[in-house]
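quick one, two chains, predict together pls
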Amino acid sequence: MKLKRKDLLGIEGLDREELELILSTAESFKEISEREIKKVPTLRGKTIINLFYEPSTRTRTSFEIAAKRMSADAVNISVSASSVAKGETLRDTAMNLGAMKPDCIVVRHSSSGTPEMLSRYLSCPVVNAGDGAHEHPSQALLDMLTVRERKGKIEGLKVAIIGDIAHSRVARSNIYGFTKMGAEVTVAAPPTMLPAGIEALGCRATSSMEEAVRDADVVMMLRIQLERQSESFFPSAREYSRLYGLDEAKLKGAKEGVVILHPGPINRGVEISPEVADGPYSLILDQVTNGVAVRMAIFYLLVGGAREEQHSEGAQR
Amino acid sequence: MNRLIIKGGRLIDPAAKIDGLYNVYVMGGRIASVKKAESDTSEAGPGVEVVDATGLTVVPGFIDAHAHLREPGFEYKEDIRTGTRAASAGGYTAVMCMANTRPVNDNESVARYILKKAEGAAARVYPVGAVSIGLKGERLTEMAELKAAGCVAVSDDGMPVVNGALMRRALEYSKITGMPVISHAEEPGLVGSGVMNEGAVATRLGLRGVPNAAEDAMVARDIRLAELAGGRLHIAHVSTRGAVEIIRDAKARGLNVTAEATPHHLALTDEAVMGYDTSAKMNPPLRSREDVEALREGLRDGTIDCIATDHAPHSSIEKDIEFDKAANGIIGLETAFSVIYGLVEEEAISLHQALYAMSANPARAFSLEGGKLTVGSPADIAILDLCAKWKVEPSKLRSKSRNTPWAGKELKGVVVKTILAGNVVFSRE
């Protein structure tokens, strides 16, 4: 079975069947990372380019490890978006990369839509590793995998996403993902960071953290960019933390067994208190572990779907 | 002395309240006479060019109150020769060109350079001078000199005049120059780093939005300033429902304010941005359906006087890049009539309203010749085929640039011929 598409540009266009396929594939790959020799030959001879126009340690490393555990050759290209050679169009960039005959290109870019624009000129799959405030599909997939693992299901869960919704690609991808999987999503942010028409994505929106957390099965905290203060999205870290920071007291209204997610890196003491981040309901490190499995699944389904037999050989070893 | 007869067409001259089958006689670049076709028995003499307009519609050549011809300074995007060729292919016989060239048209020498370059061009060119030196928003330009050099209005178009006091002074000066001040109305703080209309589409795409209030607030300010100064104000590229309401209210109070809207703001919504199409990126941005409806209503009731293209050529190096980094604007001269005729077909506006807004009204707003085909008027004429369709193929456009959201689209309403001062300057194959 394969995905119905060439690229993974976002969660918005996927249907539930495809989401389930990626999640179950990722689940079956988790075991590979537990082995002594953490490598299967599935994508041997395939070249995967990680093209990062925005600094990222975690996501880039996760994609790189995923590629290597599948035996693909991973090449990392880090470019500062501002230093991109003037005079080159996105078409030029895509054509040049395409000319090197990669089997997949993973793109992170600070400008929304760039992976989609590049994909139009590339015959190989393009994986969006986060574009501006648009989407971060692999993050949402690993979040869903993490929740499903712990809760046994996603259907019917109440999910609260709290933080800077306006500028968050993680929020958008998770709103699409969790609602497609049958969960009920509420986003909470100060009115300054609740973007116009966010409900059209399928969630409820509120500026009351208490309301969002009430009876939640999952609370996902977003990283607050402290630079946003300069644009008056919030007055100070102190005020933000008081209203929207997650601590033990604010968690009281949540459902018994609530789990906490955070895409990282966390601002301890700002959007999340240390005792919550390190507490028993925190799944933050499981998210990171699952990130590798989800990205292996993405590569497998986009690049190596035709080599199903090789994978099963590897998995049986 | 050139002589020309346009025979058998349906002449629509809204300003003269004419709509019927007429023969138009041209001599020496001007309209010599207009005769009812059924009773016209005169024969064309030797040396008279006859244009058979049977089945076609003959209208005053269009006048664009807002275009960027990019010369001097940005000739890789467009120049006066290609820009006016694009204009004539769109039925335009006159184009007002904005001052944001390099150097900026903020002094006599630049204005004269533009007019020099426009000699022999396919359309009349009327330069718009800058309000402030270098478009910096600090000091007023020498507007009387700009006028003497041939400018017909002043504008810092491309950016707002942020300093209210400077705008007030410019409007006060408009009383002695008679040149309208064209306001590119946006409150820069509210625009911020926005790249499209604020709303559900921007939220979905993860792009920063520009709220309607950014335009509404500045239109309101400029109207109050025009009132205070007693000056002559024209609002460029109106895009919001709020701005239409504010202008309607100002006109009701008897204020001498005029306004324009572009074909793209009248025809498209922010949905056109889906897929990160940089051909749908402009400033002001494409707005919501509600705003589009308000603009159409404004056109119907006369709140919006003019349809202006805001023809803004850009090369692929500015457009074929990341959406948020791409330049604002689209080319519009060659598609304007067909896009507007689409609104006529939809019955959103009447053909007469469209023609008024594309010729008679801009002529009146900026005190230009033309915009009508009465005896003695310049023989600036567009001949249209309202039944035919054409496909917009960017590579075949006359403009140097290709940034159009109508690429590949089939549009109804074709400009067949354009006549400038009695000479056929454009003929569609």
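Confidence is low (pLDDT under 50) at residues 306-317 of chain A.
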